[in-house]
Design brief:
6-stranded antiparallel sheet; 7 helices; Phosphatase 2c, domain 1; 5-stranded antiparallel sheet
């Protein structure tokens, strides 16, 4: 297993409010990507709070962790991060309204659990195919789910940036979990919407398909998003089941 992540400010923003954390211990791996929001200061604070708290609690228990234990620990960590972000906003009014997405993947052997809050995404690539694993918590996704607009319409919808679930934005929050099996050639990708708003799935799939190194692939994807305008911060974290990849 190999994990590589990269984050970039992009071409427009003056601050990078994305963050990521990752670790590998034996046959277990964990990665998380957070995309902050809420003013010039708050987004960065919120994403770092969430990433640090969740990463710390998962890392602390990872030695004895299986998929069900991960769900339990991650859920508790999200609640703790939510409370900490809300507390910080009460103590400093410049932080009012801040929050963050959180998308994470825990791998043990050939099992993976993805957890997400918000619209940062998790994808799984294997055998020349890529599927989105996470489910966006956003206004446009709700419209897609209700059949009111198409997935293609959602890409350019004026409310595409409105999310319906975030860590630190509401009094309570719950993560959504997805469990699946991994193949020997499998790659899990976690990313902020700074990537997916700039690149089509087919372009991402092509890069994952031809890559022999996930570190190089993550850098290539970020550079491609910047070449398209890089209108937001961009973060990519790749988990490869191949030690060489």
């Amino acid at each position: 297993m190999r994990i590589c992540g990269i984050t970039d400010i992009g071409c427009v923003r003056t601050e990078n409010q994305d963050t990521f954390r990752n670790t590998v211990k034996g046959n277990k791996g964990f990665g998380i990507v957070c995309d902050g929001m809420g003013g010039p200061r708050g987004g960065k604070v919120a994403s770092n709070y969430a990433a640090d708290i969740i990463f710390s609690l998962v890392s602390e228990k990872i030695d004895d962790m299986d998929c069900e234990k991960f769900k339990e620990v991650f859920s508790a960590a999200v609640i703790k991060a939510n409370e900490m972000i809300l507390k910080a906003a009460k103590e400093d009014e410049t932080y009012i309204g801040m929050g963050t997405t959180a998308v994470a993947a825990f791998v043990v052997g050939r099992k993976c659990v993805v957890a997400n809050v918000g619209d940062s995404r998790a994808y799984y690539f294997s055998q020349d195919k890529m599927v989105q694993i996470s489910h966006d918590h956003s206004m446009v996704q709700e419209l897609v789910d209700e059949g009111k607009i198409t997935a293609e319409d959602a890409k350019n919808h004026p409310n595409r940036n409105i999310i319906t679930r975030a860590v630190g934005a509401y009094d309570s929050v719950n993560a959504e979990f997805f469990e699946f099996d991994l193949s020997d050639d499998g790659i899990v990708m976690l990313c902020s919407d700074g990537l997916t708003n700039m690149l089509d799935d087919s372009e991402i799939l092509f890069e994952l398909d031809v890559t022999t190194d996930v570190g190089e692939c993550s850098r290539t994807l970020v550079e491609m998003a910047k070449q398209r305008g890089g209108s937001d911060n961009i973060t990519v974290l790749l988990i490869s089941m191949s030690e060489e990849g």
